[in-house]
Amino acid sequence: xxxxxxSLRQKIRKDGLDACLVFSGINRNYLSxxxxxxxxxxxxxxxxxxxxxxxxxxxxxxxxxxxxxALQTATLLQDALxxxxxxxxRKAGFEAAHVTFLQYQWLTKNSxxxxxxxxxxxxxxxxxxxxxGERKAMREAARLADRTFHHILPFIKAGAVERDLASEMEHxxxxxGAEGPSFETIVASGWRSALPxxxxxxxxxxxxxxxxxxxxxxxxxxxxxxxxxxxVGKPSAAQRRIYGIVQKAQAAGCxxxxxxxxxxxxxxxxxxxxxxxxxAAHFGHGTGHGVGxxxxxxxxxxPKCPDKLVPGVALTCxxxxxxxxxxxxxxxxxLLVTETxxxxxxxxxxxxxxx
Length: 355
Fold this sequence. Notes:
Layout: H1 2-14, E1 19-22, H2 25-32, E2 40-43, E3 48-52, H3 57-63, E4 68-71, H4 76-86, E5 91-95, H5 101-110, E6 115-119, H6 122-128, H7 132-152, H8 162-175, E7 180-181, E8 186-189, E9 210-215, E10 217-219, E11 222-223, E12 226-231, H9 237-256, H10 263-276, E13 288-290, E14 297-301, E15 314-317, E16 320-323, E17 327-330, E18 333-337, E19 342-344, E20 353-354
Parallel strand pairs: 1-5, 3-4, 5-6, 12-20
Antiparallel strand pairs: 1-2, 2-3, 7-10, 8-9, 9-12, 10-11, 13-14, 15-18, 16-17, 18-19
Helix pairs in contact: 7-8, 9-10
């Protein structure tokens, strides 16, 4: 944590700033280790201060590393402003995506002599590359996703309700130590499997349905994200054909992930397989996205993304084909970019499972 604060201090100095105010809960947690819901990090020229109210001072004292914990006496903004004045700060950065317009208005009105500079993704840039500890945490979250998929297989049968299956998966993940799901669990069967974000409903599974399971857990602060598509009973020839196309596309995308490759090239590798099969119109979303403290982070793996992959980046590869009113197929893995290629964090089969 101390190194993260120092890296941020060096970054803002390079950008000509004296200080930086971090409001984002995710970024606050990444920098300090604090898991509570209220607080702010203030990086000053000679020290770092963590501000929080009386509900969290004991918790902050135990969790926060690399910063002095200060008790909030007024509002977070008022206390931060007082500290900035004491440190004689003249130019301070703030997270443009995490400060409301009303908060910005208050700061500019009450901060005479201090210039506020909007920052866009400054802390997120540090979060992009996972260190050894983060990689270990993500592997553990992935292992739990693997176990969750195998746990739910015996429950998948005609008559089972999507919402019940999602609840069983989320309950299992919590029993295994997860803080909770990393996003709202998707269980979409039959015609609903053609909805890319078809969160679990009251629909019952029917014989012959394809069922898309898109799920993940938050474990020790890090996310997993997996998608598998299974069939209730024997799949039809059409279902097998579409599944085979998606499986080839997903394998091509995974194979393209390596250092120095633009994220857009990963998308192209997967998308080209689907386009050549005549289903370009049935794959409308990006091929993947970064994962870490949040389930959707940079880089965005889309057709026009120029960001080059570097070791330590974690991203998904999740192409799909969605036939409205019929069925859909998606397969998703989470991979870590290594020095020589990529490490797939999942061990679960990518072959079509028929139950």
